[in-house]
Every structure is written in structure tokens, then in C-alpha cells.
């Protein structure tokens, strides 16, 4: 089959790889009909390079049709339509029972000290072949895949794999009272969808980014916007808009590749010049994140407010303003989305006749898998009004 593979720093290639097969009786093999490109894939493209091997199949936002079914699978049949969550979670361990699917103890990576395995996401997360491919092996088939009805277009359900539960969890963790104000930093797919979900719940939402067409998109959905390329301090502007107090909660939907962190950006680039083994150690031992978005969140949140971090960070000695966090009495919540914790609730919303979150028009680009190498570059550089790409293998 054809698959998108990592071949080197900023080098994705579509190549022929062996078809996946049933390995455990609880597996299914899914023929992929749509598969998303995510901001998280961009970390593999560049900063997480030390944890990738040439040939790794990437992608973690797939859906499709079940083609082969393992002998122990009870609830799925060939022909069923499923969305595959990005975390590989067993559904029955201590963590999964508590809704902490991204910490699944069956697939946790104890050798690298990381949480549940993820599809297509480096040695740090189990090196599981990913879903930007024509076919995908999916384990724990009775609990992991989300069965969806036939009929509506793929885009109605596809974002259940990642964008929707990630944004949903970001809003849940932000925990804003009914008449409160939520600030969303970053208007990529995750920030955009977080804003939509929060507005659907009746919250006042302000979104910050510097990419005009991304701001225009969320403005079109009803959010207030701040273009941070036009001002120095996001915090001051947010306080102006909130009676001098700051936002009740802030979602950081940016993560480690934030613009406006020149020192860390230089460090990330210097890291790329070191031998691979050394890169791994340096990355996990020293700070290498770009913290601009998180710093803005700490500044813009009100005293006693909450910061909900959905952007991915990767360093371990990043300097944080502990005095300011402590003095402002800030709560910080974060983590990979626990997809299965939220997916049933979201699916019920998606099955309503009207597309309340606008998922069917959410993707800006539908492209064949062959276009992946160029799409990665354009998505990173935010060219062509590209916000969300869906590949159709
Ligand atoms: N927690 C999870 O489970 C989970 C799941 C999916 C994605 N993510 C992470 O969420 C983040 C966003 O993903 P995405 O797909 O929306 O990516 P994206 O790269 O398309 O979006 C990031 C946006 O942030 C903006 N930005 C950059 N620096 C900024 C700054 N200093 N202030 C304000 N805006 C800034 C960029 O212009 C861009 O529009 C990534 O870090 C991704 O890895 C996390
Ligand atoms: Zn994703
Ligand atoms: Zn589990």
C-alpha cells in the first residue's frame, strides 16, 4: 500500500510499504477513506526529529471501512464505518476506566517514560505505524474504534479522531462559568475548534493569532479576535476587554513551535545540527520549547483563573515564572486528549441534523495522499489559506 513516511528532517515521502495484517485476534484492518494532517505532525516534521526513524509511517487522524476482522472481535464486522482515535488505548485498564485514555497502562511506554502509544508518533510513543496510509491495523477493536453511521460525508465524523476531542477537553479543562470569557491562543484547527465548542456553550470567546485568514475564519463563527502581530502585549489588550481583570481561562492551542520565541527557536535549530543520539538526550534533558504562547497565557489569565494547555510541549527544564503563577493563583491543566472520554458525547452532537460545529466545512483542503510532502510544507508555512488538510487515499 501507499503511505506517508518520515525520511528525514522536513522530508516526508509517499512510498510503498507492506500492507498491514491482523497480528492479534482483537485487531481489525481498516481501509482508510480520509485522514487528517495535524499541527502535531509538524512537530515530527522538525523538532521531534531525534525520535523518528526513516520509513516511519505517520498520521493519526484516520477513518475508513473495516476490511478484515480478527477472530476475537465481537462488535465490528467487515463493512462497518469507523473513526480511529489518535491514542492507542485498551479501554479496560485502571487509567482507561477512569477516562484517562491517553495514559492507558496497557500501551504506556515505560522505556521512554511516556504515556499511551499514539498512532504514527515517533519512538517516544511506541513507534506504531500511522494512518496517513491506504490501510491501518487497529488493535483493541471492540473498544478503540468509534463506529459511525454510513451516509453523511466523512468530514461529518473524521474530526472525532483528534481535533474534536482535543478541543472539547481543552474547553472542559478551562472550566469557564456560564457568563465567563475564554481566551484562545492560536487559531489553527485546535484553537478554531475550541472556540467553536466554547461559543456553542454560550461563552464569550476571544482568539489571538497573527495569521489574518485564520482570525477571519474564527471571527466568521462569532469570536472576537486579536491580531498579535499588531501589538506588543496580548495581556494588556485582554485586560482592556475584560474590565481590567483578564480572561477567566486561557487555552494555549499553540505549543512548542510558537512564533515570537527567538532564543528557543535558535536552540531548536542548533539542536538539529547535533548527532541524533545527542539530540535525543539534549531534547529530553534541557528546555527546547518556544514558550511565547504559554507566557502570553500566564499574563492574560485573571487571578484565580485557569490555563488549559492543549498545545504540545517537549522540553523538560523550560523556565517558568513560578512567582507569577503562584501569586496569581493560577490552575494549569494539560495533556494529550483522552479521545474515548469525550467521543460518545461529541458523536451525539454530530448526529444532529444541523452541523452545529461546522465540521463539514472545517477542512480547507482535500488532497490525494500523493500531495502530502507539499502539504506538510504549505501547512507549516500557512500558505494557500491552509488550515485543515484532509487526505483522501
Ligand atoms: N493535546 C492534544 O491531545 C493535542 C491534539 C492535537 C493537537 N495538539 C497540539 O495543539 C497545537 C495546535 O495544533 P493545530 O493543529 O491547531 O496546529 P497549527 O500549527 O496549525 O496552529 C497553531 C497556531 O498558533 C499560532 N501561533 C503561533 N505562535 C503564536 C503565538 N505566540 N501567539 C498566538 N498564536 C500563535 C500559529 O499562527 C497557528 O495558527 C499543536 O501544538 C498540536 O501539537 C494537541
Ligand atoms: Zn492530530
Ligand atoms: Zn488502557
What does the model show?
This protein has 393 residues and is of the alpha/beta class. The protein folds into two domains: 2-162 and 337-391, Medium-chain alcohol dehydrogenases, catalytic domain (Quinone Oxidoreductase, Chain A, domain 1, Alpha-Beta Complex); 164-334, NAD(P)-binding Rossmann-like Domain (Rossmann fold, 3-Layer(aba) Sandwich), CATH 3.40.50.720. The protein is built from twelve helices and 16 strands. It has helices at 39-45, 94-97, 163-174, 189-200, 212-220, 234-241, 262-271, 276-285, 292-300, 322-327, 339-350, 372-381; strands at residues 2-8, 11-16, 28-37, 56-57, 62-69, 81-83, 135-138, 146-147, 181-185, 204-209, 224-227, 247-252, 301-309, 331-334, 365-367, 389-391. Strands 3, 5, 6, 7, 8, 15 and 16 form a seven-stranded mixed β-sheet that branches. Strands 11-10-9-12-13-14 form a six-stranded parallel β-sheet, sandwiched between helices. Helix 6 (234-241) runs parallel beside helix 9 (292-300). The N and C termini lie close together (10 Å). The model has no long low-confidence stretch (mean pLDDT 94). The structure holds nicotinamide-adenine-dinucleotide and zinc ion (2 copies). One zinc ion binds next to helix 2.
